[in-house]
Design brief:
This is Lipoprotein. The N and C termini lie far apart (about 70 Å). About 5% of the residues have low confidence. Strands 1-2-3-4 form a 4-stranded mixed beta sheet. Helix 2 packs antiparallel against helix 3 and helix 3 crosses helix 4. It contains 4 helices and 4 strands. About 40% of the residues lie in helices and about 20% in strands.
Length: about 140
Protein backbone atom coordinates (compact mmCIF):
# COMPACT_ATOMS: atom_id res chain seq x y z
CA UNK A 1 0.00 0.00 0.00
CA UNK A 2 2.88 2.38 0.81
CA UNK A 3 4.37 1.73 -2.64
CA UNK A 4 1.11 2.60 -4.37
CA UNK A 5 0.72 5.77 -2.31
CA UNK A 6 4.34 6.80 -2.97
CA UNK A 7 3.95 6.07 -6.67
CA UNK A 8 0.72 8.13 -6.77
CA UNK A 9 2.38 11.08 -5.05
CA UNK A 10 5.36 10.97 -7.42
CA UNK A 11 3.06 10.72 -10.42
CA UNK A 12 1.02 13.67 -9.18
CA UNK A 13 4.13 15.76 -8.49
CA UNK A 14 5.56 15.22 -11.97
CA UNK A 15 2.27 15.66 -13.77
CA UNK A 16 1.63 19.13 -12.31
CA UNK A 17 2.71 21.76 -14.77
CA UNK A 18 4.62 24.58 -13.17
CA UNK A 19 4.83 27.62 -15.40
CA UNK A 20 8.33 28.97 -15.32
CA UNK A 21 8.94 32.69 -15.49
CA UNK A 22 8.73 33.63 -19.11
CA UNK A 23 12.05 34.64 -20.60
CA UNK A 24 11.87 38.28 -21.60
CA UNK A 25 13.88 37.92 -24.78
CA UNK A 26 11.55 40.02 -26.92
CA UNK A 27 10.82 37.21 -29.37
CA UNK A 28 7.08 37.13 -28.65
CA UNK A 29 6.43 40.86 -28.55
CA UNK A 30 4.21 42.93 -30.82
CA UNK A 31 6.62 45.61 -32.06
CA UNK A 32 4.18 48.20 -33.48
CA UNK A 33 5.44 50.98 -31.22
CA UNK A 34 9.09 50.07 -31.82
CA UNK A 35 8.39 50.46 -35.54
CA UNK A 36 6.78 53.83 -34.81
CA UNK A 37 10.01 54.90 -33.05
CA UNK A 38 11.96 53.78 -36.13
CA UNK A 39 9.64 55.64 -38.49
CA UNK A 40 9.89 58.84 -36.42
CA UNK A 41 13.64 58.94 -35.72
CA UNK A 42 15.22 56.85 -38.53
CA UNK A 43 17.95 55.21 -36.44
CA UNK A 44 20.54 52.88 -37.87
CA UNK A 45 19.72 50.42 -35.08
CA UNK A 46 17.26 50.05 -32.19
CA UNK A 47 18.11 47.71 -29.32
CA UNK A 48 15.61 47.21 -26.50
CA UNK A 49 16.12 44.98 -23.48
CA UNK A 50 15.11 44.52 -19.84
CA UNK A 51 17.43 44.98 -16.88
CA UNK A 52 16.41 43.36 -13.59
CA UNK A 53 16.62 45.56 -10.51
CA UNK A 54 15.61 45.36 -6.88
CA UNK A 55 16.72 43.09 -4.07
CA UNK A 56 15.18 39.97 -5.64
CA UNK A 57 15.19 41.11 -9.28
CA UNK A 58 11.40 41.36 -9.10
CA UNK A 59 11.24 44.71 -10.90
CA UNK A 60 12.66 45.60 -14.26
CA UNK A 61 14.06 48.69 -15.86
CA UNK A 62 13.85 48.69 -19.63
CA UNK A 63 16.60 50.10 -21.80
CA UNK A 64 16.28 51.28 -25.37
CA UNK A 65 19.36 52.19 -27.40
CA UNK A 66 18.92 54.42 -30.45
CA UNK A 67 22.02 54.31 -32.65
CA UNK A 68 22.87 56.95 -35.28
CA UNK A 69 19.47 58.55 -35.59
CA UNK A 70 19.09 61.15 -38.34
CA UNK A 71 16.62 63.08 -36.19
CA UNK A 72 18.76 63.06 -33.03
CA UNK A 73 21.93 64.66 -34.34
CA UNK A 74 24.57 66.45 -32.29
CA UNK A 75 23.29 69.18 -29.95
CA UNK A 76 19.69 68.75 -30.93
CA UNK A 77 17.65 71.39 -29.11
CA UNK A 78 14.77 69.02 -28.54
CA UNK A 79 16.82 65.99 -27.48
CA UNK A 80 15.18 65.72 -24.05
CA UNK A 81 11.70 66.12 -25.54
CA UNK A 82 12.48 63.50 -28.20
CA UNK A 83 13.83 61.14 -25.53
CA UNK A 84 10.60 61.54 -23.55
CA UNK A 85 8.63 60.70 -26.68
CA UNK A 86 10.78 57.60 -27.25
CA UNK A 87 10.21 56.56 -23.61
CA UNK A 88 6.46 57.12 -24.03
CA UNK A 89 6.28 54.97 -27.19
CA UNK A 90 8.47 52.30 -25.58
CA UNK A 91 6.21 52.25 -22.51
CA UNK A 92 3.17 51.76 -24.77
CA UNK A 93 5.05 48.89 -26.44
CA UNK A 94 5.83 47.27 -23.08
CA UNK A 95 2.32 47.63 -21.68
CA UNK A 96 0.77 46.25 -24.87
CA UNK A 97 3.00 43.21 -24.35
CA UNK A 98 2.11 42.80 -20.64
CA UNK A 99 5.44 44.14 -19.35
CA UNK A 100 5.38 46.69 -16.52
CA UNK A 101 8.42 49.00 -16.53
CA UNK A 102 9.88 50.49 -13.37
CA UNK A 103 12.12 52.93 -15.23
CA UNK A 104 12.87 53.44 -18.90
CA UNK A 105 16.38 54.38 -19.94
CA UNK A 106 16.84 55.94 -23.38
CA UNK A 107 20.41 55.82 -24.68
CA UNK A 108 21.19 58.00 -27.69
CA UNK A 109 24.34 56.65 -29.38
CA UNK A 110 26.15 58.69 -32.04
CA UNK A 111 28.98 57.85 -34.43
CA UNK A 112 31.18 60.62 -33.01
CA UNK A 113 31.02 59.00 -29.56
CA UNK A 114 28.95 61.85 -28.07
CA UNK A 115 26.40 59.57 -26.41
CA UNK A 116 23.68 60.69 -24.03
CA UNK A 117 21.44 58.78 -21.65
CA UNK A 118 18.07 59.78 -20.18
CA UNK A 119 16.25 57.90 -17.43
CA UNK A 120 12.53 58.25 -16.84
CA UNK A 121 11.05 56.84 -13.64
CA UNK A 122 7.50 55.64 -12.97
CA UNK A 123 6.24 59.09 -11.97
CA UNK A 124 7.60 60.74 -15.11
CA UNK A 125 6.14 57.96 -17.25
CA UNK A 126 2.69 58.40 -15.67
CA UNK A 127 2.98 62.15 -16.22
CA UNK A 128 3.89 61.51 -19.88
CA UNK A 129 0.91 59.19 -20.22
CA UNK A 130 -1.56 61.80 -18.95
CA UNK A 131 0.01 64.61 -20.99
CA UNK A 132 -0.03 62.55 -24.20
CA UNK A 133 -3.57 61.36 -23.47
CA UNK A 134 -4.83 64.96 -23.21
CA UNK A 135 -3.07 66.04 -26.42
CA UNK A 136 -4.45 63.04 -28.35
CA UNK A 137 -8.05 64.06 -27.65
Amino acid sequence: MKKILLFSLLLFAFSCKVEKEKADNGQDLDDTYIQEIGNSYYPEKIDARPKKVGPRNEEKDYIIDITNSDSLKENSINLILNSKNIAYLYKKHLIKNQRIPKNIIVNIKRTNGNNESFEFDEKELIKLETTKGKSDQ
